[in-house]
Amino acid sequence: MSETQSTPDEEVRTVHDLTAFQQTILTVLSENPQYGLAIKSELEDYYESEVNHGRLYPNLNELVERNLIAKSELDKRTNQYELIDEGYDLLLGELNWKLSKIMTIEERADDITQLFDNAA
């Protein structure tokens, strides 16, 4: 099982409490804070299809309510969203779990190591 995150009221959360779309939003925000239309653009590149506002903004608001991302006002019409520690911890726990499964075979572990070396 992936790592969990405890909320102030001791409710235990995992990345599995989120939809795949919400997990992808967290991943997009892991690089840097972004405003809604920039997030939308990255999601459209990832999914290779249009992401409509009626899907994006309710999911962003839910991630804010779950204290996984922070929302701040850039100007009167534009909000910025930022991954906070709780969201990062959930993503990192999921990544660690996935890597632990993949890296059980030595050849695959070498592939992963090479992938990270090339990314650096």
From TrEMBL:
One Pfam match: PadR
Domain Transcription regulator PadR N-terminal: start-end pairs: 25-88
Alphabetized InterPro entries for the sequence: Tscrpt_reg_PadR_N, WH-like_DNA-bd_sf, WH_DNA-bd_sf
Protein name (Swiss-Prot/TrEMBL): Helix-turn-helix transcriptional regulator
Source organism: Halalkalicoccus tibetensis
Biological classification of the source: Archaea, Methanobacteriati, Methanobacteriota, Stenosarchaea group, Halobacteria
